[in-house]
Design brief:
- The structure is a homodimer of 434-residue chains.
- In chain A, helix 1 links the parallel strand 1 and strand 2.
- The first copy, chain A, is globular and about 70 Å long.
- The termini of chain A are far apart.
- With 434 residues, chain A is an alpha/beta fold.
- In chain A, the strands form eight sheets. Chain A has a six-stranded mixed β-sheet with strand order 5-2-1-9-21-20, with helices on one face.
- Helices cover 32% and strands 24% of the residues of chain A.
């Protein structure tokens, strides 16, 4: 870095938005500090595969430092931000404060339980790598416990998986668990008979994949049912405990509940004391800056914007990347004294979701794909967007291997056994072998 | 399994010994229950590579269920054993009890701190996958914290790694950390200058690799010094706290301490109320049975035996495997009414240890190898013994990739940042960029 002080751009969060902004400022005459509380960028679209033992955590995560290794004007700091003072242009990192000239908050989102925060430990969501590892542990441990449970009711409860929310993550989780239960694990778990495992996909709205076209939702619903997933549409979860949940007045015994229903923005709005929507997203100006603080930008899942074309920008990776690009362009224009670009517009290139082995839905403008062709497209697109040559090769080989063998390559349970399940497992040892 | 009850062989622990015994009983007219408190068999010889971010956890661990998938007479139970009653031939698993006809305890060993159990959280050892992941987190977090530390003394402390114990694990850890510090990470950590990282290998005895021939010890010592490892031989750690340790009266500030010094057997001896050596190993009869309980066997790291040839059987994987084979042969002979095999004899096929990139030592009977040839031999041998075709391919490709690029493929920090390091990281944000 040069000796002369240059404008300091601080980027909080190295997800899709923050990382794109940092890279798009590579040639700009600025010093960049990227702060993240994790050392890795996570490729969230494949996190459900970590949760279902298909991929290993390191295959979808890359050290932020490695990604920005060759970018001379960027440094990476592993730390947690706790406050922002827009008036003094400083942010609080741990016990000290850091000055910025321009601030980009790309802090993402977390799970929302719609006023039922007590459900969080009962029904974990899927945002971080730790979430993925924890869900993998719960799913695999449920199969282990079921294998040795003596009581038929208890075995049925252990083999009941409820996924709440039928957006892409919920659909992908339900499909992947159904494949685990009915294909990948049946050879290893002798007492777990195919027909017994029950996978529920619960959605309060009338159809799965509500943001997709109705035809694709209908196809996805049928494909999931073919995989053995039980769809519960138009029904809401009203109660939950360690043994199961209540759905439209009906009690369902289920050992594993997965939350894919609600998203709540990280506390960027609270830091800034800025107006926010119900999900906690900062209501940003058309140029993604914070009203009253033109040198502070909020992008990605932490921002709420209806763009210049009247489109509500969705909380997806392509939108976050486009916003990162846009803010970098705006910063470069300001530094060069050029006129700022026009207001941000989201370019919707489509959406895709995988349903299971060799089935997916793809919606690209007027083009729709479904089935095997869509699944191939989905595989290629995800490998293409994955960060790092090595991860791409590994994931490609792993998928090929899983496709051919029906195996799952990352069936690890780490950490202590949950006490509740451990007692079932242990209690079951005296069963006669089946 | 047949309807008629067959003798029930219970094997506790699916490490090298237990798994070998289970497989060697595949054709025997018995029902086998393998109990382990983890769902995976761990290839411990490569665990140091997980701790130093070279390999991912799933690459050296395989579900026990998958390994025994095709063995009709074996079932696998994920549970924790807490007691054995040899008089009633039952063992306690959780809250209930399980009857056995023959019991094989292959429960392995854990770390021993020689009366300093308070050192355990300060200087974790390396036995389980969780240990490996925790050490990886500590090592990588130390580099992250050093990167942003302002104070030079503090940075030096953060970049000081002390490995206690210079057996194969200690040598391998010290060499791998030195390579991380001086090669693999230097491109990503700008403020971490090569010369600053300090790796100490501490050994109370007079030489590294004390069980190897003196020439190989000497070669290994020189090779480690070439890698930048500081050898501290003939010195013992006398005190330890969160900031460092005392070594022969000298205080050394070190953020990361790794324990590779002592081993203590799992509580098999306590369960059996059997005589044990100082390390807690059961003093077994020449046929590996427990004196007074001929249907109970203890094998591997949990057993102490001076064999028929007068050799003290070492706590290494080949010895555990040979004992597993031996006990299976003895059980088959008893069932068939054939005379029991003669007392157990350990066949020492040699020992090997890797020092770092392209250097290792191998001792096979009268043959000694060192340097690159030994390293190639080490690589081939470890891939050969690794369980599972897929793991072999992956590890082979990963090693090739690391060899060519100097990269490490599994640089993940998961879990919360340690509070102590987090404060350093956070406190350092206001440093001028270096």
């Amino acid at each position: 870095m040069s000796g002369e002080p240059r404008p300091h751009v601080v980027i909080v969060g190295a997800g899709f938005g923050g990382l794109t902004a940092a890279k798009a400022l590579a040639k700009a005459p600025v010093d960049i500090t990227v702060i993240d509380r994790r050392n890795h960028h996570l490729f969230q679209p494949l996190l459900y595969q970590v949760a279902t033992a298909g991929l290993a955590p390191n295959q979808i995560a890359t050290p932020i430092r490695s990604i920005l290794r060759d970018q001379e004007n960027a440094r990476v700091v592993l730390a947690e931000v706790s406050a922002v003072d827009p008036a003094r242009k400083r942010l609080t990192v741990g016990a000290r404060s850091l000055a910025y000239d321009t601030l980009i908050l790309a802090t993402g989102a977390t799970h929302a339980y719609f006023g039922h925060d007590e459900w969080a430990p009962l029904a974990p969501g899927l945002k971080s790598l730790e979430d993925g590892i924890e869900l993998r542990r719960r799913v695999l441990t449920a199969f282990e416990a079921a294998e040795t449970a003596c009581d038929a009711d208890e075995r049925r409860r252990l083999l009941t998986f409820a996924v709440v929310g039928a957006g892409p993550t919920g659909v992908e989780m339900a499909g992947a668990i159904a494949e685990l239960a009915h294909r990948a694990l049946t050879r290893d778990f002798r007492a777990v008979r195919e027909a017994m495992a029950r996978v529920l996909l619960i959605e309060a709205g009338p159809r799965v994949l509500p943001t997709f076209r109705p035809e694709l939702s209908a196809y996805t619903g049928r494909a999931l049912e073919k995989l053995g997933v039980e769809l519960r549409l138009g029904e809401a979860v009203t109660a939950m405990d360690e043994a199961g949940l209540t759905l439209g007045g009906q009690r369902i015994e289920a050992a594993t509940i997965i939350w894919a229903a609600g998203v709540r923005a990280s506390p960027a709005a609270a830091w800034l004391n800025a107006p926010a929507d119900r999900a906690g997203r900062v209501e940003v100006a058309p140029d993604l800056s914070v009203p009253g603080a033109p040198e502070v930008f909020v992008i990605g899942d932490a921002a709420h914007l209806t763009d210049a074309a009247g489109v509500l920008v969705p909380g997806v990776a392509p939108a976050a990347k486009q916003q990162g690009e846009y803010v970098a362009r705006l910063i470069r224009a300001r530094l060069a004294g050029r006129p700022a670009p026009g207001p941000f517009r989201y370019a919707d290139f489509g959406a895709l979701a995988t349903i299971g082995r060799a089935a997916a839905v793809v919606q690209l403008g007027h083009v729709q794909l479904r089935g095997f062709v869509a699944w191939l497209f989905w595989c290629v697109a995800h490998i293409y967007f994955l960060v790092g040559f090595r991860n791409r090769v590994q994931v490609g080989l792993d998928w090929l291997w899983s496709y051919l063998t029906f195996e799952r390559g990352a069936r690890l349970i780490t950490g202590a056994l949950p006490a509740s399940l451990n007692s079932h497992v242990a209690g079951a040892c005296d069963c006669p072998p089946s």
